[in-house]
Amino acid sequence: MNSAFVDMEDEYVNEPSTSSQTEGLLDGEEPKKEGWVKYEGYFDVDTEDVIQNIKSVLVPKPGLRLHTLDLYGPFWIATTLVFSASLGADLRYDFDAISIASGFIFPYALLTPLALYGILLWKQLPIQKNIAELISIYGYALAPFIPISFLLIIPIPYLQTTVIFLGSLWSSAVLGLLLWDSLPPPFKQIFIALHFILMFIFLFFFTKSTYPDPSVDLHPGASVAPAIVPASGLNATHSA
């Protein structure tokens, strides 16, 4: 009888205690998430938060801060920009233009912040933003190009170039306001200037291929059909 109680006591003594597992939760600590699971919260965002972020970057002010850093808004902005930039002068989508735009905008919005994060990590410099937050900032910085892209429908080359320049400047200012306090020099100057240069070059050549100059003859080698002279007129000429 006593041995049975001893065996039961040993069983409970040797059982792993759950107090250590819940101790962190009782102290207010959240369990650590592994892999991509820890980024799921960046997609759990209200539409109102995304709208507030877009309003903030469209009318940037000193001390600009996003209402929330998420990944849903940047994905929506990049997708919208692909289609708005591919809208031709006849208000029809060119699927070749969509492929070109998506082949640049999506990799740029993802790979540029990844490169920035990797360089800072390699240089062992302080990083105040994680990789998801950097992607969020770069994505929202593309929002000014959406209204700009609709102005490119106007087939005036000088106006298009001016609009692209102002749009790149606008987007770079947003990026600078959001990253200036988070990056050490000279990386913030380099990446902001790189953003301006790459976006300007892409939109400039993309616009030239999507919206051709109406003053340029698209078929310079085309031959002009000769005028048909009536036979009666030809005979009259020879007789004269």
Automatic annotation (TrEMBL):
One example of a Gene Ontology biological process annotation: vesicle-mediated transport
Gene behind this protein: YIPF1
Compartment(s): Golgi apparatus membrane; Membrane
Keywords attached to this entry: Membrane, Transmembrane, Transmembrane helix
Family named by the database record: Belongs to the YIP1 family.
PANTHER family: PROTEIN YIPF
Record field: transmembrane: 71-91, 97-122, 134-156, 162-180, 187-206
Protein name in the entry: Protein YIPF
GO MF annotations, alphabetized: small GTPase binding
GO CC list: Golgi membrane
Membrane topology: Multi-pass membrane protein
Region (Disordered) location: 1-28
One Pfam family named in its UniProt record: Yip1
Domain of life: Eukaryota
Domain Yip1: from-to ranges: 70-206
